[in-house]
Design a protein that fits this description.
By secondary structure, this protein is mainly alpha-helical. The protein contains 7 helices and no strands. It is globular, with a radius of gyration of 13 Å. 19% of the residues are buried.
Amino acid sequence: LYYAADKYEILYLREACMKDLLCLLDVNNACPMLSLAYRHSDEVFKEQIVNFISKNFISIVKTESWIELTDKDTKLAALLMRYCAEALTK
């Protein structure tokens, strides 16, 4: 539904879907959700997920979804690593 709302530019529906997805966000699905947010260039969605990942990074890097992200999208994984490293130094 998020995909269709974005494709057809139904912004209120896309936002509602994003909020529902964020309610389901956990360490096991954070990486796939981040990929989804990047594919759809949803800055608000990306920011929420990246903040969650940076706070839970130790747990997330132990998941299968992290391994899949590093295998399938090294650029996104590198950007995420950079963000988390910067968050640690703040």
